[in-house]
Amino acid sequence: MPLPVPVLPEGVDPAWLPPAAFRAIGGRRTLIRGSAPLVETVHGEVVQACRRFGGRVVRGAPDGGAYDLALALGAEGPEPLGEEGFTCAREGGTTTVTASGGRGLLYGLFHVVRLGDDAFRGERAREVHRPALALRMLDHWDNVAVHPVMGQVERGYAGGSLFWRDGSARGELDRVRAYGRLLAACGINAVSVNNVNVHAAEARLLTDRIGEVADIAAALRPYGIRTHLSVSFAAPVTLGGLPTADPLDGAVRDWWAGATRRVYEAIPDFGGYVVKADSEGQPGPFAYGRSHAEGANLLAAALEPFGGTVHWRAFVYDHRQDWRDRTTDRARAAYDHFVPLDGEFAEQAVLQVKHGPMDFQVREPVSPLIGAMPRTRLAVELQATQEYTGQQRHVCWLGPMWSGVLRFRHEHDQSVGELARGGLVAVSNAGGDPFWTGHPLAQANLYTFGRLAWQPDAEPRAVLDEWIKLSFPAAPPQLADGLHAVLDGSWRTYEKYTAPLGVGFMVQPGHHYGPSVDGYEYSPWGTYHFADRDGIGVDRSVATGTGYAGQYPKPWAELYESPDTCPDELLLFFHHVPYGHVLKSGKTVIQHIYDTHFEGVEEVEEARSVWASLAGLVDPARHARVAERYEEQLRGAREWRDQVNSYFFRKSGVPDGRGRRIC
Ligand code: GCV
């Protein structure tokens, strides 16, 4: 039986799957062969498209006619396709997609949707498509109950949670299924449904509330998405009533084994656990004098009989640092904690590493940990939710930043995309907002994440092009050009008007929106810029600083070690330099700060007017929402410019070389 396509609630945006995206398929004759649960999903998709556009679908044995499209589960070809791969070819007027698993066939269908009419033109040589990374996951930082400070979704800028509301399951399972459909269409195959900061209500999802998670899993399953859960390391104590959560304690091991068995009884294809331990106040193995490998292996052992995985986060650092202590460097922490444990993690344990050493700033170097644990499965974590990049009030398309991270090569000529054997993860930017992501243009980040997780060396601009074509199927060239104009360079624009040259933070403490140059300067969180009257930046060299630069292999360690060779965009992350230091661009640091902040605001003004010119080419509600957010972005960018420029003018006493007014 074909599975009906989920119906979106009135007013909810179809994002990159508007009905018109299926026009090319829907008007043709399609044959679907094979039997597996996800084939019913594929069948349902094609049936709906044909109903809308007048085509025909035949299931099972061919009826003797000719077909424009054949979607078939079949025997493997010369190369293994696995559960998720597919082939696509066109010969004799038929486009054929074959796969050996239902997920592969679903991804093949969405491939044809992306190709549109091109899928049905001329001949196409057989192509094999397989995801580079087996796990492509979104982590939701959704709270079950509304947290007094963080709200329903920690760092959420897209309305409430898709899953939870005021302590209960939200229960809108068709919407969850529609979410799964969008995710499958860009290649995402796993979702963790609750915050890594596990509060009391979330903790119980593991035990007596597992049925609520099972309902979500059932809604996501038809689109090939596996469900994961964030759990608390202290669960044996807080939920199990044991006196300890010591990972080497037999009763603790038994408790996790039993709890995990019950999870799999409820959700047979459950993906596994996500754990934030000994991090920002979350409990962990340090309390028992145990290592993080011992902690992770405890959960890995519980999951192992069922094929599940524990994603153990490497975000471990001292958040109660004394700002006077210049020897402690937060950037060093993950490497210092975890590199000595390389080779000690069980096979079912994946170490999940943030892409940079600090915390999702607009510019950071790639974490040195990613290249330093060859005997450990690593997953790389990105942040689609725009905590530090404009909170979905500012346009900031992160494709170029993520692509730069994934293409970065540590050593042995392996890129980050290749080293991420445990998968690519993003903190989700989606929620209950009718546009899913608060800012309608932030949908592009979610889509780009999925496509880069499938193919980490994909050209981000080509991915953006796909998103534009799918989301706006009838887009005249003027709209596509306009969308590129406002999105392509938006990350660099954001960087220009915020913290300069890789130094990071300078945000309002707590909520992290808007400028506060000294907001974190005397704080325990370890996030400093050390600006004084002579200069700015953090000396992380081996010779005179914290030694962080030495955590990289050559050539990076040498390149970052000296201000003469360090790339401009990371200069202040690695070095404390005088305001008069001349960058490779030929400008002094202080003039660079002034210039980029003026330019950043001008670029937002320009983008705002490009967007205004697109009125009439996009639907009025979307146009109005984006236009309104541009007003806020421009206000915010001016505030950033004026606070940052004034601060450095007052510190340095150096006037702007171009004589512009600095407040
Ligand atoms: C979920 C940053 C964020 C926190 C987040 C943390 C993490 O510190 O500000 O909200 O907590 O990262 O990644 O665990």
TrEMBL record:
Top-level taxon in the UniProt lineage: Bacteria
Glycosyl hydrolase family 67 catalytic domain ranges (all copies) = 126-432
Glycosyl hydrolase family 67 C-terminal domain residues:
437-660
Q: What is its EC number?
A: 3.2.1.139
Q: Which catalytic residues are annotated?
A: E280 (proton donor), D359 (proton acceptor), E387 (proton acceptor)
| GO-annotated biological processes | xylan catabolic process
Q: Print the keywords alphabetically.
A: Glycosidase, Hydrolase
Which GO-annotated molecular functions does the record name? alpha-glucuronidase activity; xylan alpha-1,2-glucuronosidase activity
Gene Ontology, cellular component aspect: extracellular region
PANTHER family recorded: ALPHA-GLUCURONIDASE A
* Protein name per the record: Alpha-glucuronidase
